[in-house]
What we know:
This protein is of the alpha/beta class and 345 residues long. It folds into 3 domains: 21-107, Winged helix-like DNA-binding domain superfamily/Winged helix DNA-binding domain (Arc Repressor Mutant, subunit A, Orthogonal Bundle); 114-164, no CATH class; 167-344, 3-Layer(aba) Sandwich (Rossmann fold), CATH 3.40.50.150. It is 49% helix and 14% strand. It contains 19 helices and 10 strands. A 7-stranded mixed beta sheet has the order 6-5-4-7-8-10-9, with helices on both faces. A hairpin with a 2-residue loop joins strand 2 and strand 3. Helix 3 packs across helix 6 (68-79), helix 3 packs across helix 8 (109-116) and helix 12 packs across helix 13 (154-167). It is globular and about 65 Å long. The chain binds S-adenosylmethionine. S-adenosylmethionine is lined by residues 147, 164, 168, 191-193, 214-215, 218, 236-238, 251-253, 256.
Amino acid sequence: MATRTEAQEKQSAGSAQANPFQAIVMMAGGVVLPRCLHAAADLGVADALGEEEQKTSDQLAASVGAHPDALFRVLRVLSSNGIFEMTGRKVRHSPASRLLRSDHPHSLRSLARMFGLPGCWNAFNEFGYSVRTGIPAGTKTLPKGLWRYFQENPEAGRIFNEAMVGKAQVQVPAVVGAYDFSRFGTVADIGGGRGHLLQAALEANRSVHGVLFDLPNVIQDAGAVASDRLKLQAGDFFKDALPAADVYTIMEVIHDWPDEESVAIFKAIRKAAKPGATLLVIEQLIPEDKAPHWAKMLDIHMLTLLGGKQRTEEEYGELLRRSGFALERVHPTRSDVSIIEAKAA
Ligand SMILES: C[S@@+](CC[C@H](N)C(=O)[O-])C[C@H]1O[C@@H](n2cnc3c(N)ncnc32)[C@H](O)[C@@H]1O
């Protein structure tokens, strides 16, 4: 019997082989799909639908301030892809559209909005530049960089930080379940955003203390997680000293950076680390198979926006070696991220 991955490979390659014309047309013009999702998330259509059994697209358009026929057509595309359910002009929630509600405990509304933010989306207008040169198109569209864009646009920064909590909701329990933090005194989460990983690690390990390190505008947005066991430290990992700790977590931060900057971040951790400290690099590794996989798509976002990349285990081993760490083992988790465990060499 084919494994799930083999089946996926066959299915994706098979549909393009069975109908190559359709495959090219759908992909070439497929940009409408994310744009419809961004618009629905921005407008708050899922919130406007609420828990009601159903509403018409005209009622929803009136609630969110959209053009009735335009919103109907957007919802027709989304519902034909499983986001909302439609019968004629009547709209109901699907499991996926419920995740677009702001009040859903696992809301992905901000994640959907984040990919559509001008700072993120506009880089794709210059995508050809990235493909020709390997240089992120973001250097053209955001000359001061993405992190400065979030500092200068607080609402965009808030959406990004909230999006990170949303994207990590499956990763965080999986990481805390896959790794024993109880033997450590202090854990520092570098580039930890709103502190969602650190807070969960400390909740599961009552004797452990933590330090959340991130840029000042992000730390300002993370006040809710501070406690006598969880301290906040604002700074820039290229300029400022990092906190001393027994174990460092750094989740989906290194994928934002090219190799040289990644080595500089690891070296800054190495410099601050207590003797014998452990480093846990938490990332989505590029799978070896040919099936469609989110890590392969995320890799293109990194190429375009930031000049970072999704890496293989071997590539992380090499970066760590250049930074004075030795990769010890890789812990898979029940989510899309793996924990790459390293020790100061
Ligand atoms: C992709 S987010 C990951 C957030 C969180 N670790 C997670 O996985 O949910 C990258 C984080 O790196 C932080 N960051 C970027 N540049 C930084 C710098 N120079 N110093 C400290 N943190 C930085 C960002 O503010 C952001 O919170």
